[in-house]
Structure formats: structure tokens, C-alpha cells
Design goal:
Layout: E1 2-5, H1 9-21, E2 26-29, H2 40-45, E3 53-55, E4 61-63, H3 65-75, H4 86-113, H5 117-120, H6 129-150, H7 163-177, H8 187-196
Parallel strand pairs: 1-2
Antiparallel strand pairs: 1-3, 3-4
Helix pairs in contact: 1-3, 1-7, 4-6, 4-7
Bound molecules: glutathione.
Glutathione binds at residues 6, 8-11, 32, 37, 50-52, 64-65, 123.
Length: 209
């Protein structure tokens, strides 16, 4: 398998998932700042021209970070990162989707249309400055909601590490790379992130790529 990867929370989510699963893959780094992902060649692999893309040994191409993680969970079930029963899997997916839709998407769109505008406007559709501010505020409100849901727990669900924890951590870390930090009062998430930081898979965030 080959992973087309870059800076950013989505490929780094898959890379953390791979480390947690003990799976080695060849990694091809694309510099999204200089637009290596915009080549005609890469567009053949991923029509969205985003990372990550996982190329399987039979040539099949998988995209969308959580879909790639689902595939890896099915093909490498140990350690369990999504769930051992249909109920557990549903619970993990529920959290991963909530965090993605209610937090990660507004946060990313808010950043692209706000502070990240000079970098993103020439490359993709971005929302207006006004909408960006609203999206960022919405995401921060939902971070505080997630903080409450987490409470004193160490993990988002099942009392153990799951995909939902990795999604949460990756978007907290992404914020850190672009000058954002968790909203004041998100003490449970601050503690959660500090604990996640100790995992060997968090090393991915300390590398240049
Ligand atoms: N929904 C996609 C989002 C992928 C995405 O937006 N990836 C970013 C990196 S984190 C990217 O490739 N951006 C391309 C660019 O900025 O040109 C996923 O979950 O994989």
C-alpha cells in the first residue's frame, strides 16, 4: 500500500491510525503549499486533489480519511480502533461524524475563509470573511460542547482509544499549527490532548511533513 500524504489534519489522522495499528506503508509526501496535489497525475488518483489517498496493492484508490481508517480497521482488526461489536462501531462512528461535521468542517472552513484566506483563496472556493468568522465561532462553541461531553473521561467513547479520539486530537493539533487554541474553559480537552500527546503516534505532529 502507498499513502499520498501532506501537511494537515486529514493525512495526519490516517498516519496516526496506521501507527496505532502497527501498519507500515510507503508514504509519498505531496507539498500542498506549492500545489503538488494539483498535478494532472494526482488528479487521476484523487479527483478532489486532496490528501490523503491510499493506493492499494491492486491499484484501487481510497480517499476520505475516515473511510481509509474504516478500511484499515477491517483489514487489520487488531488493535480494535472503531469497535468490536455493531453497537460499539455505531457509537464510535456517531462520535467521529459529530466531531467531523460540527467541529472540524466549520473550523476548517472558518480558517480557510479567515486567517488562511491568502493561502486558500487562489486555490479553492472559500466563504466570505463574515461567514468565516461565524463558522469559527460555531466550531469553538462546539469544542466547548465536546469538552462537556468528555468530562473527566480520558477517551471520547468506550473508555479506550478509538478513531473518535484521533479525530479530536488531530483537529486540536491542526488548530495549534495555525495559531488557534482551544477556547477558554475547555479544560477537559486540554487534559485529553496532553495525554494523547504522550502516545508514540503523536510523534507524527512533531515531524516537518
Ligand atoms: N474530506 C477529506 C478532506 C481532505 C483535505 O481537505 N485534505 C487537505 C489536507 S488536510 C488537502 O488535501 N488540501 C489540499 C489543498 O489545500 O490544496 C478527508 O477527510 O480526507
Amino acid at each position: 500500500m502507498k499513502l499520498y500524504s501532506s501537511l494537515g489534519p486529514n493525512p495526519r489522522l490516517v498516519r496516526m491510525f496506521l501507527v496505532e495499528k502497527n501498519i507500515d506503508v510507503e508514504r509519498i509526501h505531496l507539498d500542498i503549499i506549492t500545489g503538488e496535489n494539483r498535478s494532472a497525475d494526482y488528479a487521476q488518483k484523487n479527483v478532489m486533489q486532496t490528501t490523503p489517498t491510499l493506493e492499494l496493492d491492486d491499484g484501487m484508490l481510497l480517499t476520505e480519511s475516515t473511510v481509509i481508517c474504516e478500511y484499515l480497521e477491517e483489514t487489520h482488526p487488531d488493535p480494535v480502533m472503531i469497535g468490536s461489536t455493531p453497537q460499539e462501531r455505531a457509537e464510535t462512528r456517531r462520535w467521529a461524524r459529530r466531531i467531523d461535521q460540527e467541529i472540524a468542517i466549520p473550523m476548517t472552513m472558518g480558517f480557510r475563509g479567515g486567517a488562511g484566506r491568502p493561502m486558500f483563496e487562489p486555490r479553492m472556493n472559500v466563504v466570505s470573511q463574515e461567514a468565516a468568522a461565524e463558522l469559527s465561532a460555531m466550531s469553538d462553541k462546539h469544542w466547548l460542547w465536546l469538552d462537556e461531553q468528555l468530562g473527566s473521561k480520558d477517551h471520547i467513547c468506550h473508555g479506550k482509544l478509538t478513531l473518535a479520539d484521533l479525530v479530536t486530537f488531530c483537529f486540536i493539533k491542526f488548530g495549534g499549527t495555525v495559531g488557534w487554541s482551544l477556547p477558554a474553559g475547555a479544560n477537559n480537552l486540554t487534559r485529553f490532548a496532553a495525554k494523547m500527546e504522550e502516545r508514540p503516534s503523536a510523534e507524527i505532529w512533531r515531524g516537518e511533513e
